[in-house]
Amino acid sequence: MVRNIVVLGGSSHPQLTATICSFLQIPTGNVLLSKFSVGETRVEIQESVRGKDVYILQSGGGKVNDHLMELLITISACKTASARKVTAVLPLFPYSRQSDIPYNKTGAPLSKASNCYNKPDFPYSFESKPQTPHPDHPPSMGLANGVNGLHKGLERLQGDDGMGDYHTTANGRNGHFVRGPPNRSDTLDSQKSTFSAAQRKWSSSSLANAVNHDESPSAKDAPFQPRPGYKQWVAQAGTLVAELLTCAGADHIMTMDLHDPQYQGFFDIPVDNLYGRPLLKQYIQKQIPDYLQAVIVSPDAGGAKRATAIADNLGIAFALIHKERRPTKITDRQNATMMLVGDVAHRTAILVDDLADTSNTITRAAKLLKKEGATKVYALLTHGVLSGEAIDRINASALDKVVVTNSVPQEEHKKRCPKLEVLEVGHIFAEAIRRVHHGESISSLFQYD
């Protein structure tokens, strides 16, 4: 039994919380989670956490935004209640797929392609930016027609009516009152005011004509078209979620199989990224017959490193599915052409990935593998979110079996999908919590040999 520790479970995965507490031989922390009629989250810690290590478990499946807000409020409540240390246990990290430098998405920086913006005779390229004064940069282009155009316009204004009135008045003043005694309009003060009025007149109404005097009338009537130069970016949710957890009071983060391992760099606090590969490797060795003749397949280039790690460890072959045409829009991803790099004919194919949401990638990959001659197709996934039409898509696909962990609740999915098999991860998180609480190393949990 572990002492001086409290494990609180959020509303996202109460079954996993109970499993972890049973391994640790401690009762589940008493916390009240509810919502007001308006939808605001209410959290009340109903036991003392003063001076204790608190572990709050909340997964990223289901209603992600509600679960994230509930986690933040619970962390803040524990810190307010004088908890010694607060650790957020996130089996599936929310928003981990939205890293700060996304690519291949609408609104993300794309590579230079053949378009009107990066041709040699075009002043701006896709990677360029509008000129801004900077000590290390050359000066900007300035006015559209240059300084000469401004000077020419000012010289032309010398003969305008406003300036002509000023010269006429001045000549009358200097003519020894030939036309009679001076009026108040001929005094110096009135002349200054008249000159100032003339200045305001031509500065407000004619300066624009001086700058653009070379432009044709048709160009003036054309609608405004912004010049290209700025990249379009999607919202940077990765750093935001990391800062929210830190500002709420989290001292430590514990998760499993981050979609982007560099996500750990967004935090100023320790992050333990546990691996689900030991479970997947154990399943391959015990549940897949003649696995040494099978082929580990990565459904996309992004998961190649993850799949090769398992293939090299088991000493079996590896293949890769490559999208031949990289789509530029999210809606075009489903229509991207896929090609297989490797041989799976008359062999068992094992698809390995970290996460399946809509299951479009793995179902299309399974169809391609069966077309290339694979006898059976397994899909091994760490996080089976399986949202939307994912279950129906799996049932109608060429997949023979889909193996996921219970990092997110799988009870409803298992009822609807006979091909689904669930692996338990509660003992991994329980052991990690025990080792962290006692100050022991958790490096053994990172190994999958």
Briefly say what this structure is.
The protein has 15 helices and 14 strands. By secondary structure, the chain is an alpha/beta fold.
Q: State the assembly state of the protein chains.
A: single chain
Kindly state the mean pLDDT as a whole number? 78
The radius of gyration over CA amounts to: 35 Å
Taking pLDDT < 50 over at least 5 consecutive residues as the criterion, the unreliable ranges are 102-131, 161-179, 201-219
N/C terminus separation: 29 Å
Helix content: 25-40%
Overall description:
- This protein has 449 residues and is of the alpha/beta class.
- The chain contains 15 helices and 14 strands.
- It has helices spanning 14-24, 64-80, 146-156, 161-173, 188-205, 207-211, 217-221, 237-248, 277-287, 304-314, 360-371, 390-395, 411-416, 426-437, 443-446; strands at 5-9, 31-35, 41-45, 53-57, 85-90, 252-256, 271-274, 295-298, 317-323, 338-341, 348-356, 376-384, 401-405, 420-423.
- The strands form 3 sheets. The chain has a 7-stranded mixed beta sheet, sandwiched between helices. A 5-stranded parallel beta sheet has the order 1-4-5-6-7, sandwiched between helices.
- β4, α2 and β5 (85-90) form a beta-alpha-beta unit.
- α1 crosses α14 (426-437).
- It starts with a strand and ends with a helix.
- Mean pLDDT is 78; it is low at 102-131, 161-179 and 201-219.
